[in-house]
Amino acid sequence: MTEKQQHAIETIIAKLPEGLRDAYREAGEYAVSLGYKPTLKGAQQQYVAFNKLFPNKANRTILKIVADIKMATYAMEIRFFANKPPYPPKFRQALDEYDKMGWAAPCNSCGHCKRQQAYHIKTDDGYRKAAGCISLIHMETLSAEDIPDIKQAFKNADGFYMEFLTDNANISKDYYSGF
């Protein structure tokens, strides 16, 4: 990890409540180990986005760590579409909340990912697919106990991106970055 990357992570971690710091640092460092680069963002540097540039020039964000002191908002925003349902309980709760807010756009079969980049939202009669290409899922209740699930989610999403975005058939296509 470069000094600049370490600075970005430590700057945001210092703004978090003490009880969140170790878990959020571990998630951030794992994202870096997969090749994602942390960058401070926002007018008051209230979040760090972890991005990776792939061979087809697609830039993907797998994680945001948010520490907005003014709004008293401390959260991780993650991608976990590549995990198969049933999702871990906190992931499912966050996705349900996301859906209740009306933010879970239906997967419209655009053809870019053959509907593989979608979240599966539980319904009364099964599951429906929601677009996973456009959204990080906001989670405020993540803790150290969730780190194994978070790491697996990152590993699965990165594996999907590595396979999908390095496939020669997809190299020249301009895919939505999903930031």
In short, what is this structure?
The chain is α+β, with helices and mostly antiparallel strands and 179 residues long.
Give a verbal description of the structure.
The chain is an alpha+beta fold. It has one domain (3-164). 33% of the residues lie in helices and 24% in strands. It is built from four helices and seven strands. The protein has helices spanning 3-15, 18-33, 89-100, 147-164; strands at 37-41, 47-53, 59-68, 73-78, 118-123, 126-131, 137-139. The strands form two sheets. A five-stranded antiparallel beta sheet has the order 1-2-3-4-7. Strands 5-6 form a two-stranded antiparallel sheet. Strand 5 (118-123) and strand 6 (126-131) form a beta hairpin. Helix 1 (3-15) packs antiparallel against helix 2 (18-33). The two termini are 23 Å apart. Mean pLDDT is 82; it is low at 171-179.
**Secondary structure tally, helices:** 4
Number of strands: 7
For the sheet with most strands, the description reads:
5 strands, antiparallel
Radius of gyration: 16 Å
Can you list the strand order of the major beta sheet? Answer: 1-2-3-4-7
Low-confidence blocks of residues: 171-179
Q: Globular, elongated, flat, extended or rod-shaped: what is the shape?
A: globular
Q: H/E element string? A: HHEEEEHEEEH
Number of domain modules = 1
**Average pLDDT score:** 82
- Provide the structure class: alpha+beta
